[in-house]
Amino acid sequence: MVAPGGIGRRRGDAPSSVPSPAASERARSERAFARIATALGKYWVCKRGPGHAAEALECLGGNGYTEDFPLAMRYREQPVMAIWEGSGNVVALDVLRALQREPDSAEALAEELELHRGAHPALDAHLEQALALMADAAREPAEAQAWARRLAETLALALQATLLLDGEPAVAEAFIAARLGPGRGLGYGCLPDAARMGAILARA
Question: What is this structure's pTM?
Fold first, then answer.
């Protein structure tokens, strides 16, 4: 069929490459989410990485410490991430910058977090805190610089929990209880008694 003006698409022609409005909006939202999620990921990986390497080294004992195994090098390299990717303060301020200068990023992150509201009481309480901090940062950008690290950590934990909920439920439940629950902590091996260890180990 030929459209008015003599320009049209014949049967067998390749479909138009012009994205639909819905696809364009989806792509815009994904870019906005990636902007802030990347900064959060950088901050949290750089902060958790050295401790994770130390725990792995401890598990292997002397074999982990000696230069005969690659873990010793990994242990030394973990702190370097905070130099390559930006120091903690720099990346935390980048999170703050994304929230303030790119409102679409804050909206995309909030939408992603809200998708999992109701999954767990501890997560709901943490989401309230995270979203309140985001609102405070937008309202008082200058003052927020003093607690940018707390903002980055709170948002990173919230995002980490929601992403785990898309996977093995036992892992997500244990993470939320250990990291966001009343007896929360950031140490390894501190899972609650209710953690379904069999399912967690089966996934590993």
Answer: 0.83
